[in-house]
Design goal:
Number of helices of chain A: 2
Oligomer: homodimer
Structural class of chain A: mainly beta
Distance between the termini of chain A: 36 Å
Shape of chain A: globular
CATH topology of chain A: SH3 type barrels
Largest interface: A-B, 33 and 33 residues
CATH architecture of chain A: Roll
Chain lengths: 121, 121
């Protein structure tokens, strides 16, 4: 177990501490875990956290890009909390772990819109 | 080997593809590799790429925080290129892999100043 409470370093978090962290919703359902996240190369801005969800023992799960802005770290839970109903994931944008799509503007707008967020780029 | 050329996805790069990537200088010297990077939790802005350098077979190396903005990805080299002389690392800010400092503003300004960059926060 990673002790996130001692690895926060103020306002910053290490990339390898984000990966693997659990994601819950406000009802306390365990939704999945962060597989990785997508960074804009030039500016260094994180655009998506990619959540692994579904499958069995981590096999066959899908990857769901989430707007970074909808995730809040909860030190009590030791994971990220997002305000979304589990059913919302049924139709959410997703891809196979080895089938990452072209994250172009059209795809990005679709993801942000799905979660009720403004696509800021 | 990670084929970075097929994993770029436009302007975005996956966090786990950044980790482990080699870092060279303009003279072609291999300086180290990216251990991880530090992200501002709220905004999702990457502030530092942390380069592992020194030691033997990856043991005993130090971690050098570099301003994200000084790294450029070079598809030919398959790694990041930074414009810095190897000797500059002799006195550069560094820490043990398990001794990550408090990345506060004072530390950040020191790192950015060391590499001739303006600390933008």
């Amino acid at each position: 177990m990673i002790d996130m409470t001692t690895d926060n370093h103020g306002d910053l978090i290490a990339s390898d501490r984000v990966e693997g962290t659990a994601v819950y919703n406000r009802q306390g359902d365990h939704l999945g875990k962060i597989a990785n996240f997508m960074v804009e190369k030039r500016s260094g801005q994180v655009r998506y956290a990619v959540m692994a969800f579904g499958g069995f023992l981590g096999l066959g799960n899908d990857h769901y890009p989430l707007p970074w802005s909808i995730l809040t770290y909860d030190t009590d839970k030791g994971g990220y909390v997002v305000d979304l109903d589990k059913q919302l994931l049924d139709d959410a944008p997703r891809h196979a772990p080895d089938g990452r799509p072209d994250y172009d503007d059209s795809y990005g707008r679709n993801v942000y819109q799905y979660y009720g967020q403004i696509y800021p780029w």
